[in-house]
Design brief:
Blueprint (H helix, E strand, L loop, with lengths): L3 H6 L7 E6 L17 E2 L2 E2 H10 L6 E6 L4 H5 L6 E4 L4 H9 L6 E6 L7 H9 L6 E7 L4 E3 L2 E3 L5 E3 L3 E4 H7 L9 H7 L4 E5 L10 H5 L12 E13 L3 E3 L2 E3 L3 E3 L7 H14 L4 H4 L12 H14 L2 E11 L9 H12 L6 E6 L5 H4 L3 E12 L10
Parallel strand pairs: 1-4, 1-6, 4-5, 7-12, 17-18
Antiparallel strand pairs: 2-3, 6-11, 7-10, 7-11, 8-9, 13-16, 13-19, 14-15, 17-19
Helix pairs in contact: 6-7, 9-11
Amino acid sequence: MYNIVTLKEKGLNLPDLSLVMLGAGTSSRFKMSAKKQWLRTGHTPLWLYATQNIIQNHTFNKVIIVCSKEEIEYMKLFNSSFTYVIGGNSRQESLKNALLHVKSKNVLVSDVARTCVPQNMLQRIMDKTDCADIIVPYLNVHDTVVYNGETINRDEVKLIQTPQLSNTNSLNNSLLNAKNFTDDSSAIKANGGNVAYVLGDKKANKVTEVEDIRIISDLKKPSTDMFVGNGYDVHQFELGKPMFLAGVKIKDKRGFKAHSDGDVALHALIDALLGASGAGDIGELFPDTDMAHKGADSKELLKKVVSFLYNVGFKMVNCDLTIMAQSPKLFSYKKKMRETIADILHIESLHVNIKATTTEKLGFIGREEGVAVSATATLKYCNWKINEILY
């Protein structure tokens, strides 16, 4: 298969078809700490696995991934050739955002939660291109169907699947309707468009609840690799400001000079967690030029990072912090520090280690000009195979 770049290099015409993968949902019905689109098969998140499955035998002039605002920069690290678009408050709003980037005559729309669409099913859809305003895969119903207390003819019932292939103009016009639709075919049909149906496949099961992912035989379990990150931060003292270290208020006449509350320990820990996940550093997420973070409670910053990491498929394993301070003395605070961090990371306090040391009066720390902290954190993937439910 030629990729997009190769086709351009060979001077071949690109197919007049774009792909939109919808993945901005919150996974509210998926009772795990990770969003379903971020569960791993090996090292690959499901949103990428589902996309690769569709594009492996078909060429698109643009592949558009719709995602949440919080995850868009992280998603870009996995494949820079895709176009990433921030989703809306509903499936329909997300699709509208994606279609702003579609210039092709036709568009194939699927959900990232439909991870294993069979290639022969895709081909059946592609073979019907231009036969109708939209091509829709469906499943027949083999059980008795009761609607509003009455048995209805099951032969007239279709279970609709994705991906669906639409004429782009028809889909755009249909979405101008103020009503929200659960799929593209409903919108196009309501707008007077014609629909062509092709047989779908049970293997194209959509992951909605935890049980759904476990019955998809094609998905390998997540990798058991561990990911280690390091963080280091320094802040100088500032008289008359409260001191916070590792989320605990320290009795001292000095605090730390910083844009936020200056909790140097939590800042180092945030960098360690981001390092383990490959998600950048604290300055990228919470720049000191953003007044929204002026005087911010670093515990709240850490909570945001932890929530992000759980959402994108990680579990916390442990962390280890070394606080380098000539003063103040920290022995009496260490237990509270462990408990505070453990509570935020949703792990046992045993798995949070706090070490405090001086520098034997050497350097800026020894001169009591400030404090430095080194942190190490370990992560692993959330293992959906063994029912790792919400923390």
